[in-house]
Amino acid sequence: MAQDTIRLTTAQAIIRYLAAQFIEIDGKRVRVCGGGFGIFGHGNVTCLGEALYNHRDELPLYRGQNEQSMGFAAAAYSKYHLRQRFMFCTASAGPGTANLFTAAALAHANRLPMLMLCGDAFLTRLPDPVLQQLEHFGNPALGLNDGFQSVSRYWDRITHPAQIIQSLPAALATMLDPADCGPAFIALPQDVQGWTYDYPTRFFEEKTHHIRRISADLHEIEAAAECLKTAKRPMIIAGGGVQYSRAVDELKAFADKHQIPVVETIAGRANMVATDGLNTGPIGVTGSDSANAIAEEADVVLSVGSRLQDFTTGSWTAFAHDAQIISLNAARHDAGKHKSLPIVGDAKLGLLALSDKLASYKAPSSWTKKAQDLRQKWDVYVEDNCRPGNRPNSYAQAIGTVNRLCGPRDRVVAAAGGLPAEVTANWRTLDIGTVDVEFGFSCMGYEISGGWGARIAQSEAEPDADTIVFTGDGSYLMMNSDIYSSVLTNKKLIILVLDNGGFAVINKLQNNTGQDSFNNLIADCPTVPEPFAVDFEAHARAMGANAETVANPAELADAFTRARKSDKTSIIVMQVDAYEGWTTEGHAWWEIGTPHVSQSASIRDAHAEVESARSRQRKGV
Hints:
This protein is an alpha/beta fold. The chain is globular, with a radius of gyration of 25 Å.
């Protein structure tokens, strides 16, 4: 029997296939691809652009201002949707595609799905060398797009129209896989995009996907349960994978049943609300005194959905040398780190199975109470740390002010610089899954673009909630054009620009290692003859946003209230102190490279202080 076919260009087939893919989320069937971000150029406008135009209703295309920011927005969109939906980014051949590299690295580090459809040089090579082509004299097949292999979970170059029949399902399977999730890159030579093929019509039939849940091996569950049953001082680390598995209810039930204190990673913030009795606080370098104190004493540590990054582990000094780590993770690579007892599988199913094997086990009440008492002391510190007037204007004061006034479902976005530490330590979670602190790649510039992507997702699901962005002046200057994007697309953001005169958190690190301030704060740049402050308010207004500058947290509160009532993107600018405004408690050790020799006594002293903590570092076992 002859197979029904339809003749399409490669580009048309790609877009038709994406439009036919659905996923079921909480009983509702929606497209797994929420649309895309695009900047057209000679590598993608004539063929891919034509195909996208004909599917503009099913797959809305948001016009970005910068390819890197488009990738950030796509990553934030998938994070909001707990990796169950994604967006694509399309860029022209050459610098347009090159601009996506940092965003791809961010998505890779954070294990977030994002599809990149990028122009490439002509497969025939007849017009070579073409505009913006990089030539490698000894390897004519090597091009710029090959560099994305290092920052992609799936990578392919389409050299014949039929190849997408295999490539697209493989890319989609990667992006939806709990263990291998991450960005997919498909290079599309300019000529191949327009070539035709008689595709089987079955390839374009609608399909509904479901996220795979892998049950853990029974032997691994039993080994972990036997270990936990011996614990006198157990602790749970709740990572971002708890939310991606939609296992927050199971986490809470597990902790409640067995009375085990829970600490959160940066990616795992908002796994539990701040008032939960077993929430002991954030752990690690930017954590809390309460969580870090418990971690130092814990004899068994159950890590759930965490890749155990150095800011979580204090560069592996946060735990006692003889503490046994159990790691429940969908990714085998993460489950076995530092000689952990691995449980490779889904967090939701794994917690249920482990709880069943633990039966009636409960942590000693004295241990649980100690964790709760420490958390209460930390809460007192945070309340005072965020109190207006306790010192010059600070990040913490701004965070506390917004925290008191925002709604429970408002989403907070921050990244890199000093704000991830300050938000992680001081933000009191009002509802589950409402905090996005990008620290997997610690990428400055993510904040506003990520806020835009999050708001696109949020406006689909929770239109009455707000997306609140915390950014410093340094990150703002790196990437701010999506203020304009948010205004153009009517995706309202509330953006707090906290101006401390440069890259103040790196200046703090510089000072803390015995060095003089140099080239971080604008005032300390030797190549700047006359420092001056940027008028962020005027700049934001020029992009169509509401904007105002406030002098203190009281004025910030009034401005934030006005911003919440507005239906338009609002920027609120406040200067904060570069030296006295930092949260001083809650820090674990962090391994950094310091000079082993120096003419400066202060640098030598700082190096000795850093090295003094190395004896506490686990050596991979």
